[in-house]
Amino acid sequence: MPLVDDRGFHGDRWRHIADDEALPETGDVIVSQGRIAEALARPCGRVGTELGPDGDPEALVPHFGDLALIAVTFRSFADGRGFSLARRLRALGFTGELRAAGHVICDQYPYLRACGFDHAEISTDLAKRQPEAYWLQAAKSITLGYQRGMARSTSIFDGRHPAERRLTA
Amino acid sequence: MYRYDDFDERFVRERVAQFRGQVERRLSGALTEDEFKPLRLMNGLYLQLHAYMLRVAIPYGMLSSHQMRQLAMIADRWDRGYGHFTTRQNIQYNWPQLKDVPDILEALADVEMHAIQTSGNCIRNVTSDPFAGVAADEIEDPRPTAEMLRQWSSLHPEFSFLPRKFKIAITGSPNDRAATRVHDIGLRMVRDADGNPGFEVMVGGGQGRTPMIAKVLRDFVPKQQLIAYLEATMRVYNLHGRRDNKFKARIKILVHELGIEEFTRQVEAEFAAMDLPAVSPDPAEWARIEEAFTPPTYAALPEVSPLFVRAYETIPEFAAWADINLMPHKAQGYAGVTVSLKPIGGIPGDATSDQMRILADAADRFGFGQLRVAHEQNIVLPDVPVNDLPALWRMLAAAGLDTPNRGLITDIIACPGLDYCSLATARSIPIAQSISERFADLKRQREIGPLAIKISGCINACGHHHVGHIGVLGLEKHGQEYYQITLGGTPEGDAAVGVNAGPGLAAEQVPEAIERLVDHYLNERLDGETFLKTYRRLGHDAFKGALYAAG
Ligand code: SF4
Q1: Of the partner residues A85, A137, A148, the one whose CB lies closest to the CB of residue B279
Q2: What secondary structure letter does DSSP report for B490?
Q3: Residues 3 to 32 of B: which have CB under 8 A from any A CB?
Q4: How far apart are the CA of B18 and the nearest CA of chain A, in angstroms?
Q5: Which residue of A has its CA nearest to B31?
């Protein structure tokens, strides 16, 4: 399924491996949390896992060093738990790639980025309805938001007081 | 008053452009109606019974005369020449066309206004005391904090797809005129032992089908840490609030199901893990916003105004209005004025574009160009020299804006109900009108004293019926509208949810039933006792008996 990030649409190098599916010897795979160790034991290829809307980010902390990617799933674009899960994962120190998977729409893209996601994985159908140009436009729809401490470079609150920022930085 | 800087300006302009694009994409089919719905709601756009309805934010109820004139212009150009002020200090337009909405938003941006988050499952427009900054009983002006919250909550990346809507109210006074205890979060200004300002944070209040009085989450949060503390609270709610059932999705249900102790524990754990300096706005930003609320330069006025006294002694209508519609002001020689939008037999909260312009002119002439919207659906002129009150009153009277009924039985709160609202089960406006007409006699109204009637057209309780001294809830069965009466509610300090009195009444029975309640109160009251006090002393059953007495 298509991936979308700040530069536009891309193919996906990662493969989702279902629990009843054999792991490929090589290549980057996204597996359920129970199969992380198994996937790491392969000779090569990176490992990622999924975190559902009910998932517990703390449970992934011991794996942070091994995981190159966490895919936080959105059951529906209106279910905003993934935004808080992403912020928690980043606050807990996860520095790998964060993916929003499931149903998210282009209007949410700037929110996803601000909460710490790197990209979104969208359905082919959605990619047809909302082509690349929409996402690129949505990404720059609001130049600066107010909130501080987000994963974006700066905020209105910071922009207003550049001197103070340098002092406390 | 807070003025937009370049950052705010760019933010709302970009937001308008974004919405214009969303409307175009909806019309082209790139957005499904399902996907468009939350986006339009977050811009205040509802689909109602007959048309779209646009709800415009009036943050913490503050308006300049310039903004009020623009609201009038919008009513004339894109609506039918009037607007409706709501219990959440917003204004609603009932007849805009979808294609015009981006232009309306642009016209709002021209006067530093917007419709951001007046609807949808996000943090709604923050409400406050209409007398904030001028009330004599205030600890500190809550408006800088309210403005800070407006900015912080605007398009919050994490909290725009919450389980359900989220309402915050804030007061700076121990006498709560903002109904903070029936909000998802209520903030009450307090000082700690060293005199530092902060807030008591209350959580889980609300109306709707499960009315609840908020519980104390923390008795003191320093002002500087408030944003971080709210983020912690919102995160716990966003992650754990129920999403399986729309009717159980408000934070009050989460607090109720977890218990306030467990909920508090989770919030405190989240807060403890937070990087406070990274999240909190700078002290310099607080100072910048606070400066915007520097009080106007009040003239040194004498305590007594001969002009006022003369008018008071010679014009009984003026004297009645002055007795009823004024509030003590912290500056000598000034008064806070309530302009009632509840003329006898009128639609509560409605104002025509001409009335809006007259209010704007009155504010310019007599009150530093400032206006407020009260959650009781009235307009407030916060700073009027007592000396100018007779002239102001004449100006208002000429426009039908001089109704002397603040806090009296005809100062009825009513939601739009079945006349406009797609969720309604019954009409509420005609009920308000018939009660108002029945109690039109001012002498009688004054004899009855403070009595709050609040009417909702369905269980969602936008008309605040749960916290009316007398609440009226419109319902429907087999195509028949009927009305349930609740008694003893109040949103103030000792907040209470009204108790249902029993079987519903037909629309035409409601005024008479209320008459019986009032008569019972007048017969039974002790000296100086209000309706609510008598109700509390005699108990529910005594009034219930009166309500259903032969009739
Ligand atoms: S209480 Fe019901 S009828 Fe009245 S405005 Fe709210 S949703 Fe509509």
Answers
A1: A148
A2: B
A3: 5, 7-8, 10-11, 14-15, 17-18, 21-22, 25, 29-32
A4: 6
A5: A129
For residues B52 and B86, the answer to whether their CB atoms sit within 8 Å is no
Cβ–Cβ gap A168/B239 under 8 Å: no
Domains belonging to chain A, first-starting first, are 3-168 (3.20.20)
User: Ligand 1 centre and the CA of B39: distance in Å?
Assistant: 21
- Of B201, B185, B178, the C-alpha closest to B87 is B178
Q: Does the ipTM exceed 0.85? A: yes
Helix residue spans in B199-315 (DSSP H): 226-240, 251-258, 260-272, 276-279, 283-291, 306-314
**Cα separation, B353 vs B347, whole angstroms:** 15
- Assign domain B127-292 to a CATH class: alpha beta
Amino acid at B215: K
Q: Is B456 in the pocket of ligand 1 (CB under 6 A)?
A: yes
**Nearest to residue B16, comparing CAs of B109, B91, B96, B79?**
B109
H helix intervals, A5-155: 36-40, 81-91, 109-114, 124-129, 132-139
Dist. CA A137–CA A110, nearest whole Å: 10
Three-state secondary-structure class, residue A72: strand
In angstroms, the separation between the Cα of residue B57 and the nearest Cα of chain A is 18
By C-alpha distance, the chain A residue nearest B8 is A156
Three-state SS annotation for B358-389: HHHHHHHHHCCCEEEECCCCCEEEEEEEHHHH
> B-chain residues within 8 Å CB-CB of A91?
273-275
Do residues B96 and B187 lie in contact, with contact meaning Cβ atoms separated by under 8 Å? no
Q: How many CB pairs under 8 A join A and B?
A: 123
> Measured between alpha carbons, how far is B71 from B393 in angstroms, rounded to an integer?
23
Instruction: Report whether pLDDT(B61) > 60.
Output: yes
Two domains, one topology: B127-292 and B413-547: yes
CB-ligand 1 contact for B462 (6 Å cutoff)? yes
User: For chain B, first and last CA: distance in Å?
Assistant: 53
Q: Please, are residues B386 and B305 in contact by the beta-carbon 8 Å criterion?
A: yes
Which residue of B7, B8, B238 is in closest CB contact with A81?
B238
Question: Does the beta-carbon distance from A142 to B18 stay under 8 Å?
Answer: yes
pLDDT tens digit sequence for A104-134: 999 999 999 999 999 999 999 999 999 999 9
Q: Which of A11, A10, A27 is nearest to A136 (CA)?
A: A10
Q: What is the residue type of A21?
A: E
User: What is this structure's pTM?
Assistant: 0.93
Q: Is A136 on the interface with B (CB under 8 A)?
A: no
Q: Which amino acid is at B289?
A: I
Domain coordinates of chain B in residue numbers?
6-63+94-109, 127-292, 306-398, 413-547
The C-alpha torsion from B297 through B302 and B303 to B308, rounded to 10°, is: -100
Q: Which residue of B has its CA nearest to A138?
A: B18
Q: Are B390 and B311 in contact (CB under 8 A)?
A: yes
Residues in A closer than 8 angstroms to B157, CB to CB, are 83, 110-112, 114-115, 145, 147, 150
B121 contacts on A by Cβ (under 8 Å): 78, 80
Task: pLDDT tens for chain A, 169 residues: list them.
Answer: 899 999 999 999 999 999 999 999 999 999 999 999 999 999 999 999 999 999 999 999 999 999 999 999 999 999 999 999 999 999 999 999 999 999 999 999 999 999 999 999 999 999 999 999 999 999 999 989 999 999 887 999 999 988 655 444 3
Residue B550, pLDDT score = 65
Q: What are the residues facing A114 on neighbouring strands?
A: none
Q: Best of B94, B207, B415 to mutate for ligand 1, by most ligand atoms within 8 A of CB? A: B415
Contact B379 CB / ligand 1 (< 6 Å) = no
Please give the class, per CATH, of domain B413-547. alpha beta
- Torsion sign, CA atoms B133, B135, B140, B146: negative
In the CATH scheme, what is the code of domain B306-398?
Answer: 3.90.480.20
